[in-house]
Amino acid sequence: xxxxxxxxxxxxxxxxxxxxxxxxxxxxxxxxxxxxxxxxxxxxxxxxxxxxxxxxxxxxxxxxxxxxxxxxxxxxxxxxxxxxxxxxxxxxxxxxxxxxxxxxxxxxxxxxxxxxxxxxxxxxxxxxxxxxxxxxxxxxxxxxxxxxxxxxxxxxxxxxxxxxxxxxxxxxxxxxxxxxxxxxxxxxxxxxxxxxxxxxxxxxxxxxxxxxxxxxxxxxxxxxxxxxxxxxxxxxxxxxxxxxxxxxxxxxxxxxxxxxxxxxxxxxxxxxxxx
Length: 275
Description:
Helix 8 (about 240-245) runs antiparallel to helix 9 (about 250-270). Helices cover about 40% and strands about 20% of the residues. It has two domains: about 10-135, Phosphorylase Kinase, domain 1 (2-Layer Sandwich); about 140-270, Transferase(Phosphotransferase), domain 1. Strands 1, 2, 3, 4, 5, 6 and 7 form a seven-stranded antiparallel beta sheet that branches. It is globular, with a radius of gyration of 19 Å. A hairpin with a 5-residue loop joins strand 10 and strand 11 (about 190-195). The chain has nine helices and twelve strands. The chain has about 280 residues and is α+β, with helices and mostly antiparallel strands.
């Protein structure tokens, strides 16, 4: 089994054919719940409902009352069906512990990841199961939009948080409506939480324009897919770009030009969506 160097504040627990990397403060509770065993994760996920993103998520309450969300890590993109749940090397899996803490240090609101089970097999390939802190009293934006769209002020806050993330040099590789959570208050405001940083990249400075445009295009594609089958007028995604640009008129113009050029790619994706 490959040796792992855990992030600061974590320990490695032998777990049969795998290794459990767990926050020092939670090691006793997590192992008491059996999460050093792959079978415990699989059983919890088997009983769980399908999630918005890649597969099911399960919930677990530790003896202390701390609540976790469990999921199996999966690959996305064009090669997702081929690679499925296996990763070459363990580096990307371990990044699921390091990236949330690094992103939080740059001002992003994202849940901590206190535990990761990594299992090797076949040789050179790895599978991973991740535990994240549960974000309570929040709803993912896809679900919220499909039921009752939030006020425009809340949508503007969502896009401002995306802008903050990009300005901080955090490149989310799978930005979509399902991994933007909102926790609305009794007033007009809301807290915005970004989830699913699997595969994210950290840049030394703010993201270049091309990467920002690509991320917003992914959001627009997610929005169009949510309302697939309705007219383009009914699913105008202008709020994504207006909220991101804010008062920056020059950025707004550049984004709009890029948006027009990118509509062809969204139309191509539409061909693969199930009706």
